[in-house]
Design the sequence.
């Protein structure tokens, strides 16, 4: 009895048409006892898909070149999303990614890694603490919504003018050692006793012995302890750099000089060199030196970081406390020679110095120059290119 009931139920299941949202399976025996057919119905899903409103990718942003500017080693830029034909701003952009890199040419296909400022909610950005050791700063922007990012904008190239140099190891005193292209340290063990004289080599010795490389002479000897920069100061642009002394430094000097400074001459003791010297051997003192003349400055307190500004058009050289922004001393009539350009000169004994280059002339330096010197400084302009994908210590010493 149970078996008959089971067979009856199974026959009903075989004859029933089974339905699913998109598949329909029929096993009815009317066609044949051994065949079946399968039908797919997507009409319901198609109606649901047609009702969906897909979010498209945002369009490429456009930079507002008139509002982009470079100042005080900062870069400020603004951008916008273009409008469509209905004069309605493209929707969907919620965040922005800004990328920038520093390069030496304005070509766009350079293998230089981009730096990214991500998840910006506003259409403007300020990038600070830049060092302009290259000629160009390139930027591009990307808009994105909750799901997908859009394309990057066209690359904008910005000309960044700043004085950049390195310390020249071939123009250094024998006791000074370069730790990096911008760091020098007095190295006491570097002083070597003079080598004993040997007998003159005979002609036979010259023929039999191989040639040896002769070590070049040190650029400076004696008590100068000087090292020069490898790049002349520009003749048509203002120059600015900073020098920071190590805490253990006893005596050091900072200035500029003609690159023709001889081996035995010291910084600030010639008519073609201008410098200030800091002495911390017994007590803190600072002196201005030029043409073998010296002036002690009334500055009992000052930091270990000194800023140097030079205006070639007015032949004006100034030294500042980089932290307090106080004017330490100024020189006038600082001129380059007809065949001897001006270079940076440093001197250090028992200590070390670190140079910071690639710095634009700060706004506070330009304001101080305009206040202490009658001719107004030239207005600095920024070139943009868009490409596809207390008391004045001024004196003549």
Sequence:
């Amino acid at each position: 009895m149970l078996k008959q009931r089971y067979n009856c139920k199974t026959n009903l299941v075989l004859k029933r048409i089974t339905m699913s949202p998109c598949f329909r399976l029929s096993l009815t025996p009317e066609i044949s006892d051994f065949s079946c057919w399968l039908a797919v119905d997507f009409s319901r899903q198609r109606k649901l898909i047609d009702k969906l409103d897909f979010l498209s990718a945002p369009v490429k942003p456009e930079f507002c070149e008139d509002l982009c500017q470079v100042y005080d080693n900062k870069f400020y830029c603004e951008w916008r999303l273009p409008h469509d034909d209905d004069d309605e701003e493209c929707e969907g952009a919620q965040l922005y990614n800004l990328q920038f890199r520093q390069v030496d040419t304005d070509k766009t296909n350079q293998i230089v890694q981009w730096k990214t400022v991500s998840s910006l909610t506003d259409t403007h950005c300020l990038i600070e603490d830049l060092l302009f050791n290259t000629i160009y700063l390139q930027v591009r922007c990307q808009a994105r919504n909750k799901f997908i990012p859009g394309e990057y904008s066209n690359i904008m190239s910005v000309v960044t003018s700043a004085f950049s140099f390195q310390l020249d190891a071939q123009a250094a005193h024998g006791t000074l050692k370069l730790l990096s292209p911008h760091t020098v340290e007095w190295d006491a063990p570097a002083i070597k006793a003079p080598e004993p004289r040997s007998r003159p080599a005979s002609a036979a010795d010259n023929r039999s012995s191989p040639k040896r490389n002769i070590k070049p002479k040190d650029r400076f000897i004696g008590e100068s302890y000087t090292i020069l920069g490898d790049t002349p100061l520009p003749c048509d642009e203002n120059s600015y750099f900073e020098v920071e002394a190590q805490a253990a430094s006893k005596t050091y000097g900072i200035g500029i000089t003609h690159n023709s400074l001889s081996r035995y001459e010291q910084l600030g003791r010639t008519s073609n060199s201008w410098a200030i010297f800091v002495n911390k051997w017994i007590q803190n003192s600072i002196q201005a030196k030029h043409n073998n003349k010296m002036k002690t400055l009334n500055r009992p307190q000052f930091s270990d970081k000194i800023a140097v500004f030079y205006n070639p058009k007015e032949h004006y050289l100034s030294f500042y406390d980089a932290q307090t922004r106080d004017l330490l001393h100024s020189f006038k009539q600082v001129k380059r020679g007809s065949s001897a350009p001006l270079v940076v000169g440093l001197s250090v004994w028992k200590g070390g110095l670190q140079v910071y280059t690639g710095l634009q002339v700060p706004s506070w330096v330009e304001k101080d120059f305009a206040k202490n010197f009658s001719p107004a400084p030239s207005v600095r302009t920024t070139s943009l290119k868009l490409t596809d994908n207390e008391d004045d210590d001024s004196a003549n010493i």
